[in-house]
Specification:
Oligomer: heterodimer
Strand order of the largest sheet of chain A: 2-3-4
Largest sheet of chain A: 3 strands, antiparallel
Radius of gyration of chain A: 13 Å
Number of domains of chain A: 1
Helix content of chain A: 40-55%
Shape of chain B: globular
Low-confidence stretches of chain B: 1-5
Distance between the termini of chain B: 41 Å
CATH class of chain A: Alpha Beta
Bound molecules: iron/sulfur cluster
Strand content of chain B: 5-15%
Mean pLDDT of chain A: 91
Largest interface: A-B, 25 and 25 residues
Largest sheet of chain B: 9 strands, mixed
Radius of gyration of chain B: 20 Å
């Protein structure tokens, strides 16, 4: 499954963490360094396998750890309405 | 991932304050306006198109603010919809993932303008409204616009664009507040107001006559449960103007805040980044020893000190403004008698 960042978000990376403002309600969210890494890869249009691969390479972790980090993060930001399923894929 | 909205706002505010990130930038795109509001701080003689920044200059300014870490961007005026490049500027800022807010009088918002704003990805539209039809039209000096503004507000809401109504409450529309509040409630949008009226940028203080009397301020502060959050001396005296807030006028002058016309430089002469990174204003501004009157003032705890008002009134950042002093002494009375 491929996800994409919702169009109604404003965000900025400040010292490795991304601050996101949802224009629907002006709510502010913050994502940590690993989350910010995944968020940026989503922005670049990478799919799940590609992002997990990048996580393994960048953070030197086991693939199972990368998969679980990815899954947890995606679940969390999906519930918060920050991403949506990409219908093209 | 963290959830708490309020504390996160504080975290971001504090980081940007310490690291001098221009988190909130207000760009006045033009001083031209099709209204002549009674309280407006822009003198009529300032409304010249000829000196306005070009689209290219504004775009490179937005790029610089982006590279410095800014996220909230307000396009204001005058009436910003009088600029033909407004949609191009919003689109560009959204491409850089800013939270883009438009301050407008609402009179130019027809269906096609609203559709364009939606397509550009505007995040919020704030519309000035001062009362019912009769009062509003008289206050802004223009007839035949009221219904159009109300329709525009409703259409923005229908199109799922974050919209709010805001007013300045004066001694003339004090009784209009309830009407405005219930109008906003019936449409399902936010209503906010302020009652402080600043002298014009050229020092003309005639609009101050519109300010509420003591009794009205007292009842307003009491009704809205006026809060005194800031507790330490430093945050009571020094605000974040020029530290994580910045404003640029239509002619390229950079100010610490739109309420504080203390010129830091001009982007037609220097890069914004160089103006912003020059610490000479901040160094003076944050010196608590400069605030001699405030340090010994018994109203300090109740005062929402604004250096902008001090500067416009007395040409001195560190002085006491009669307007803030008046509000502070009323707040103290409420505190003492409750
Ligand atoms: S009332 Fe005037 S002197 Fe007192 S704290 Fe406020 S601004 Fe300073
Ligand atoms: S206190 Fe006055 S100068 Fe400071 S940020 Fe607020 S409005 Fe601007």
């Amino acid at each position: 499954m491929k996800y994409r960042i919702k169009p109604n978000l404003a965000y900025r990376k400040i010292f490795d963490e991304i601050y996101i403002v949802d224009s629907k309600n002006s709510y502010l969210h913050k994502i940590n360094e690993v989350g910010s890494f995944i968020f940026e890869k989503l922005k670049e249009g990478l799919n799940e396998d590609e992002i997990i691969d990048e996580l393994v390479k960048t953070y030197d972790v086991e693939i199972e750890v990368a998969k679980s980090d990815y899954k947890n993060f995606i679940e969390e930001i999906f519930l918060k309405g920050l991403i949506e399923k990409d219908a093209k894929k | 991932m963290q959830k708490n909205k309020k504390s996160l706002v504080d975290v971001l505010f504090n980081i940007s304050y310490c690291k001098k990130i221009p988190l909130y930038t207000l760009i006045e795109l033009t001083y031209r306006c099709n209204f002549l509001c009674k309280h407006c701080y822009i003198p009529e003689s300032y409304r010249k198109k000829i000196l306005e920044l070009t689209s290219e200059k504004i775009i490179s300014l937005i790029e610089e603010i982006y590279s410095l870490g800014g996220i909230y961007l307000i396009f204001s005026g005058g009436e910003p919809l009088l600029r033909k490049d407004i949609f191009e500027l919003i689109k560009f800022a959204k491409k850089l993932n800013f939270f883009v807010v438009l301050f407008t009088n609402g009179s130019l918002l027809d269906e096609s303008v609203i559709e364009k704003l939606k397509i550009c990805g505007i995040d919020k539209v704030e519309i000035s409204l001062y009362g019912n039809k009769k009062y509003h039209q008289e206050f802004v000096g223009k007839n035949g616009i009221y219904e159009k503004i109300i329709e525009a507000i409703k259409l923005l809401k229908k199109k799922d664009i974050n919209v709010c109504i805001k007013s300045v409450i004066t001694n003339q529309n004090f009784k209009q507040r309830e009407f405005l509040e219930s109008l906003a409630r019936s449409i399902g949008i936010e209503y906010k107001f302020d009652f402080v009226i600043a002298p014009k940028n050229n020092g003309d203080s005639s609009a101050i006559a519109l300010m509420l009397n003591d009794k009205e301020i007292y009842s307003l502060l009491k009704e809205y449960n006026y809060e005194k959050e800031k507790t330490n001396l430093l945050s009571k005296v020094i605000c974040s103007a020029g530290i994580n807030i910045v404003a640029i006028n239509p002619y390229g002058d950079v100010f610490p805040c739109i309420q504080l016309p203390y010129r830091l430089g001009n982007i037609k002469e220097k890069r914004f980044k160089d103006i912003w990174e020059n610490d000479s204003f901040r160094e003076k501004f944050i010196q608590i020893k400069n605030y001699k009157e405030c340090r010994k003032c018994d109203l300090l705890f109740w005062c929402n000190r604004c250096p902008g008002l001090s500067f416009v009134e007395n040409k001195n950042l560190y002085s006491c403004s009669s307007i803030t002093k008046k509000v502070a002494s009323i707040s103290k009375k409420i505190y003492v008698f409750s």
